Amino acid sequence: MHSFKYLLSFFILIITPSLLFSTIYENAENKKTTKWSLINNTSAGTIKNIYDKNKKSRVIQFLGEHTKSVYILKLSNQKINKTSLLSWEMNYSEDFVIMVELNTNKGKHTLIYTPGNEDSNLQYGLGRNSTSGLWKTYERDLEKDLNNFIGNSSIITINNFVIKGSGLIDNIQLVAPKKIVENIKNKTVVKEQVVKKPAKPTTTTNLMPVINLYGKNPVLLQKGEVYVEAGASAIDSSGAELTINISHQIDIFKEGEYSVIYMTTNSMGNSVIDKRRVIVGKVSEQKEIKKKNEPDPEESLKLEQRSEELSAWETKLKAREEELLEQEVVKDKTINKVPLNDAPENYPQRPGL
Fold first, then answer.
1. Where in the chain is the domain with CATH 2.60.120.260?
2. How far is CA 251 from CA 71, 72, 122, 278, in A?
3. What's 208-294's CATH class?
4. pTM of this prediction?
5. What are phi and psi for residue 25, nearest 5 degrees?
6. Alpha helices in 39-175 (DSSP H)
């Protein structure tokens, strides 16, 4: 009986803290794939729950047409619990794109993680060895990654975990950014969670591909109006054209804001993501954008005042010239004109523009 109580206390020490300080989104142990789905309007793909001999646990397997296939784990606006450190394990041997969609105090934003070593706006490289075909664990402080580009921002909820490409993934969870359990009476030793600092962007920006979007951004659609893709192009540092994967899920019959995602990868394994906003039925925002293209009222008032000042100057100038003509009539009734380069002392000053 005492032995049983000791074992129970031991399990409480080990298990309870991890449950308190972590939120598990997916660990595949239920042998199901119901949390995952394949995004519509993309190429074919399958989702399986399999046993991985190397990892010695069940994992989620994605099989499709490389990054053309997009898989989503819907988190239903999951609130973060005292931590924004997202951890996951993955085994990929081909290109991939991970997108973590967030609700923040400064609107909706998407953090993007790709192979390679380059960082750009809200996009981070996980290293070239991230496609080595071996199991690797990644930890990212989402709030820190967000604030690197959007200052004074905080995460309200995590909406979705989206991944493109075929491979294996497991143990997607939020964990504590420090020790999960204290070393209680030297009975339990827990490894400290280390937050991986994002690599500083290098000055060699020409190693990254460049995507150029054609057409308008954002695109404004009336409810029910068909979206027409304007297209895009991509080049690498040598000027060679690259293939672009384009994906979106726009419901033209539902008002809201949508995103069209463009992704390209160069021969060095560096991937770049760009995004086009598509606004369906948001009339107020359409008016706001139209308003930005209209002249600034204050600037128009200044131009009007300048025009009045210039008109008054021209009137004074004409009067002054007539006065000079009357004063300079000589005996022979000829007019000694004032040289062009010698302005009279009381010559009206032209207002600046």
1. 2-202
2. 18, 17, 25, 10
3. mainly beta
4. 0.57
5. -90, -35
6. 142-147
Start-end of CATH 2.60.40.10 domains in the chain: 208-294
pLDDT at 118: 79
Higher-confidence residue of 123 and 294: namely 123
pLDDT digits (tens, 9 = 90+) for 281-296: 865 445 545 555 555 5
Residue whose token pair is 């020490």: 13
Q: Which residues does 271 contact at the CB level (< 8 Å), separation at least 6?
A: 95, 97, 114, 115, 116, 209, 263, 264, 265
Q: Coil, strand or helix: which one is 227? A: coil
Q: What would you report as the CA-atom Rg of the chain, rounded to the nearest whole angstrom?
A: 33
Closest CA to 273 of 72, 95, 73, 139: 95
Write down the CATH number for the domain with range 2-202: 2.60.120.260
Residues belonging to the chain: 353
- Closest-CA residue to 260 (of 198, 214, 196, 297): 214
